[in-house]
Amino acid sequence: MISTKMTVKPSEPVQEVPAEYVDYASKVSLNMSSDSAKAEVTVKTFIDGDTTHFFVPTDIMETGVLKARYLSINTPESTGKIEEYGKTASNFTREKLEAATSIIIESDDSNWNVDSTGDRHLVWVW
Description:
This protein has 126 residues and is of the alpha+beta class. Helix content is 11%, strand content 28%.
């Protein structure tokens, strides 16, 4: 059996280099010619920072209302249980949607897909 002895020297402190900031959101744009489901909507009810109820055409939802959960957005809760920054996130979303001249919702594919609760639809909001 061969035995080797290793000597480990303490390493010098590593200086962290700040990562370059990249604004990925500004590089994304709505493609109206894609096959994904899309609709121009208006707000019925603001719920919180990542959920809004929209008025939609009745051919999309028979009730005329689509309960939307935003894709790729997860904000702290501000309904029922109030989490830190939940109200701030809710206010931010409300301000952006109230200032919008047009709101388009888009699904990931050609269907209006529901989330794990079965009550809300997963959408991108433009």
